[in-house]
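User: what does the whole thing look like in 3D?
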Amino acid sequence: MDETMKTLSRRNFLKASAAAMTTAAGVPALKGLVSTGHAAAPAPQAGPITDHFTACDMCFNRCGMIARVQNGRVIKLDPNPKFLKSRGMLCARGNAATAHIYDPDRLKHPLLRKGARGEGKWQRITWDQALDHAAEQFERIAEKYTRCGVMFSPGSDMQSQFLIRFAEVFGSYNITSHETLCLLSLHRAYLDTFGETPYPDVLYSKYIIISGANPYEAIITPDTIDLMEARKNGCKLVVLDPRYTKTAALADEWYAIRPHTDMAFFLALAHVIIHEGLYDQQYAEEMLFGLDELRAHVRKYTPEWAAGETGIPADDIRRIARELAAAAPTSMVYTGRRTSDYEDSTQIRRSMAIVNALLANWDRPGGILAAREVGVRAPYFDIPWYDDNPDDRIDYGMAPGLIHHEGSYKLMRDAIIKGEPYPIRGWFTFKTNFMQTAANRNKTIEMLDHLDFIVNADIAMTDTAWYSDLLLPSPSFLERNDPVSALQGSSACACAIWRDAVVPAMYESRDMLWICTELSKRLGFPETFDFDIHQYREWQLAGIPEAAQAIKEDGVYYNPSKVYGIYADSPLRTQAQKIELFNQRYANMGLDPMPVYKPPRPTEGKFRMVVGRTAFFTHSNTNNALLIEFEEENTLWIHPEPATRMGLRDGERVFVTSDVAQVELALKFFEGIEKETVYMATGFGALSPGQRLVHNRGASIAEVLEDHADYITGNMAMHETLVTVSRKVG
Amino acid sequence: MKKYAMVVDSSVCIDCKGCMVSCKVQNNVPRGYWRNWIKQTTPDFSLGKLTRTHFQPGGCMQCDVPTCVQACPSGATFKDQETGIVHVNESLCIGCGKCVRACPYGARFRHPEKRVPDKCDFCFSAGRLAQGIPPACVDTCPTKARVFGDLNDPDSEVSRLLRDNHTVRVTSANIDTQPNIFYLAATEPANWPGDVEFPQSFSVMASLVNPLVKVAVGLSALGVAGMWAKQAFAPDSEDDEQGPEASHPEPTVSKQD
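Assistant: Here's the predicted 3D structure for the full assembly of 987 residues, as structure tokens:
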């Protein structure tokens, strides 16, 4: 998409506007008289501004953007008004992408580690040397430890699919990404209830309960925008969160629920809806499997009982259940985000999915929807067989509900440290920063000691890059041509996009397709990457030939596919072919077929640490000159009551100690946090001096979090850490 | 002739700060300073489940009675009759800082490098309006809390909103500046605007003396040179160093319909 939408000579425009201003001031003669000072300084030669469609990459949402380029430099990013998924908006992060790509801390050329890991001694090498070295190391590891001896972490980038293709052809099953720290428990729970991971039709809903998620702050397009639009149309919003988030601040009702008791609340909702007969009987007969079992199961989970667990009054629970049912099927329990929380997070999400099932909102307006068809294909490739490889991924069988193409970073890390069931000695990471995002940073460092070779491709010197052996500088999303990506934009759209380079790749950065192509030549499977980006896109769009033109013209293609009633004539993809309130497979595997509530372990004077998001940072992507102005250093949020009782003062520096680490940061008194809960933002206390804005500033939550996991999926459980808070002495 | 205005539905602001960053990038606003902002109320947690926070976006109010224009001795700050936008003609500014203190909204700051006042001009000088695209803050807003347009055009979105809705103008207690940012829905500003720092004698000077000064400036190249020198060496007062978040000591709020 090299074409230009519109151009405007900025120079002529400025001349005109200056003239207009002078005239308006009523002093037309004055301009000529004022010839000294900065007004006389010659303006830099400014070229025309050209506009280019692209899609944001500051988080994974991929909002539609127009990049405004002048003199080969991106000067401004604006929303693409035709982009329905992001509804013509761009958040603070998207706007700050200029500071991301022109970050002085960017990796500029391939670097090879010289000193000890983490010592920061690097040698600049050429790309040829870097690729030769990487290929040599991969081959050496493959020979000695099999091809599964290399772990791949492809990130969530539009080019990640190339690294996955590379890993599979290279022969490693050990692929894991950010997802295993994120929402696999959500996927599992809904796959095991509805047979599919749904997306919420927030826009048309009339009553929404959000538990833990924070869409007004941890921006998800289109849910964030739709939630406001829905509320303008009378949708009621109830938020459960131990922390007073912006979503809580704007909700109709906010409950500072005790952490780890959400399941009690949802089982009580199910209790009320079933025992008061508030569900659609005919729908239940046709669509629900195991209602009788559920009825018996939730008998004891009364609102009065749940009140004792959650801290939410029984009357409120009963009223909310009735209101929710009255609005059904145009009501919902919001499905997503912040679902990697507890050791039983899959079962917690199952309890929410069951309430959704009782609301009969599946595949209906204002409810939870099946994925729409976009038509983008994944190009086929042959995966070769390597005889000496082990039978399966390293974490196989370690969690009963492992999602096999993602695995579990937490379980893989444990297996690597143990060296069992087989050794992994290499790691290829692309645009992920497990050192700052995965719980128990010290354990990640321990894992590195078991690895012979770590190669990291990224735009910046993240903590993960800092501890790597070989660094491959990547272009930013505005400097490369990306394959087609399919996106769901709620009921409004199912769309396809691609990105073309808006400005040339800076420094010596090279994209992942190029890296995989070059490495595949060196490793003896050049035919795997025997294509360029344009050919690849053609393959991807073979089923929707009209898409390419639309993407060129508008930056996006919309598929007019069916929105509601997708499953009207076909059975669900579950064992019962219905919505499984009672999961038969779980019963066979010895898991609870329905969610059984287990109370949180007592805090015993400690605090439960929770994670959360702000509207201006994405995870550890904090080293941004524009965004850091909103929060220069993270603080520990604590309720003033327990803190004062402990003799602590607002703003003082404290030690926060868990079973795995001790960190130091400043306290922030805030009444908007449950009294047994503390919170700190992600992405501070970076080890890498290459992240100058956050290096040693505040503390790293990844360091203090203990590495618990959901026992069904192996998904990292981020809310299971209990910490003590104590005054920093001296 | 246009009269640009902004209508803000602060009930839908989610405090994402998109407008602040978009403005900063578009107008090259230096670190530590902002041309626009989102203010918020302090939540009252004794309300329990009903605890709320109200977020309120703002920026230069482009007042019809602009106290900054009255306070400016050199005519550098002026209200453009063609657009209704209050501008700063940097080449006329003597750097006295009076306009910064005269703004009850804290919407002006002294640019640390250029040594002249800086403020929102609805992205006029950035060229957005000429290109037919809305100001950066409006364009980027996820929930479209900010709506921009021409009040003189009865078909514009802002005119329609003003016609169809109850609106509020946030003004200073001691002078109604008749701002052109209108707020829809109940608006609960947090400790702003402040007073106009503006001695009584000053209005006389503004209406009588300043025009004379302006003529003098226009006629005397020497005077202009002198003022440039003054500007170049003008020390920063503490007030000037603060961004628009700086509030005045005795905040007063008055609303008018």
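In plain terms: Residues 288 and 367 of chain A are 16 Å apart (CA to CA). Chain A touches chain B through 65 residues (CB under 8 Å).
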